Amino acid sequence: MIDIRDLVKNYPPKKVLDGISLTIETGEIFSIMGPSGTGKSTFLKCLIGLNRPDSGEIFLDGRNIAGNLSEKELQEIRKKMGYLFQEGALFDSLCVWENVAFGLKYLTGIAPEKYFDVACEKLKMVGLEKSEYLKISELSGGMKKRVALARAIAPGPSYLLYDEPTTGLDPITGEMVAKLIKEMSEKLKVTSVIVTHDVKLAMEISDKIAFFQGGKIIEIGSPQKIKNSANTVVREFLENCSCQAGDS
Amino acid sequence: MIAVIGEKLLALAKKLGQTYYMTASALAWIFLAPLEKKEIVKQTVRIGVQSLSVTSLTSLFTGMVLALQSGYTSKSLFNEPLYVGSVVGFSLVKELGPVLTAIVVAGRAGAAVTAEIGTMRVTEQIDALYTLGTNPSSYLVIPRYFAFMIALPVLTVFSDFIGILGGFMVSSVKLSVASSVYFDDIFNYMEVKNFMHGFIKSFFFAFIIATVSCYKGLYAQGGAQGVGKATTESVVSSMVLILAIDYFVSALLVAVGIS
């Protein structure tokens, strides 16, 4: 479980996160939506220690990880988390299987001779068999996202954090990634936190959605509750995004 | 006016602080995590191979022009090309070999390192390293420090050798100096400490190039344009620092008797 209390992060003069409090239950798919620049990605990076909040608390399985932690303590926390970056952030100098196996060295106790097998197994899970030796430059956008997902799940995390998992993908590939997220959540019993603009994705797969605006949560609840929200910002956002999805 | 100066000074202090932090962190990670030996070998080979042809050409022509200039100057003064080997040997081994090699390596390999790490920064690959339990100091910075520290001294020795050969070619073809005379001029007057003077300096230059190129890459901002800017700054800063540090290290080495 992730319990967040009064989280604040400033990039002066802007207050990016302004007292965020929420709880993400174990096994849940929790989506965070909202317009650009409202602190969604900053929030996600605070969860994995890439950004340090100015104040507030983040309890991960009962332990506060928002304070000043040492590199070793952060590493222990990161063992529990997988992170899917918006553009994949795959290492160009390594081939596909080396990318997938990268986290195994420091985050797991798996023997080096088994790295390749583990990488192949994870690639199979995301539907990328026989692509082990491909270069990153040879992959399409959708394949990159799937390799990045395989890399994120390889060390066996309990939490998966997704930063805009369907951005830049065509609707069919986006749909496939959405299916994968749902599958990963069910098969691996992980807790998923998704930052997204993709209303369709959030509505289809989330158990709960929080809507961010100006660094604050202005609406939180089930997809149905968000859909029926009386908040004008939420309604406008959903209507605009639905129109755009309809256009495309 | 005062506000502008203050801002510039603060920015400089911030950059120095970041450089110190990066270097100290890299040193600490040498002991905190196992060395990435594969990465060290890969980077050393890359930096060495990338720079070999261009440093060889630079030193070849430097040796040739030194022989030509010193030969014709002494010919006009004494009617004979005197001490061509000594002039070429001393100039190359003590000064031009290490300095020119370092400048070329900064332009070739240093720029490549900044561009690579900078691209990793702006495409979130550095953040990805953290999430995968790997500190960038351990995986990116330390191997490049080792690589520059190994490759640059080797390239410097190679450059010295090629430059002396270049000088020999010109002195024998253009100045008609006998090969025995040319090489006697070098071996009779040159001592091991003269060679060590340049060799030791190459380690300082390697440290500068590694520090500047890694720092500029790690703190690159703002997409492709930012990476381009960081790369240019990396080359310019490395060159200026190499020339400035060259004086102080030379003075230090002379003071301790390695001249």
Basic shape of chain B:
elongated
CATH-assigned homologous superfamily of the largest domain in chain A: P-loop containing nucleotide triphosphate hydrolases
User: What are the secondary-structure elements of chain B, in order, as H or E?
Assistant: HHHHHHHH
Average pLDDT figure of chain A: 91
- Helix share, percent of chain B: over 70%
Low-pLDDT runs of chain B: none
Q: Tell me the series of helices and strands of chain A, N- to C-terminal.
A: EEEHEEHEHHHHEHEHEEHH
Oligomer: heterodimer
Describe this structure in words.
The complex is a heterodimer of chains A (248) and B (259). Chain A has helices spanning 40-47, 71-78, 96-101, 104-107, 115-125, 141-153, 171-188, 199-205, 223-227, 232-247, and strands spanning 2-11, 14-24, 29-33, 55-60, 63-64, 81-84, 159-163, 191-195, 208-213, 216-221. With 248 residues, chain A is α/β, with parallel strands linked by helices. In chain A, the strands form 2 sheets. A 6-stranded mixed sheet of chain A has the order 6-7-8-3-9-10, with helices on both faces. Chain A has a 4-stranded antiparallel sheet with strand order 2-1-4-5, covered by helices on one side. Chain B has one domain (2-255). The model of chain B has no long low-confidence stretch (mean pLDDT 94). Chain B has 259 residues and is mainly alpha-helical. Chain B is 88% helix and 0% strand. Chain B contains 8 helices and no strands. The chains are: A alpha/beta (248), B mainly alpha (259). Chain A binds chain B through residues 45, 48-50, 71, 74-75, 78-79, 81-83, 85-87, 89-92, 102-103, 105-107, 151, 155, and chain B through 32, 119-120, 123-125, 127-128, 130-135.
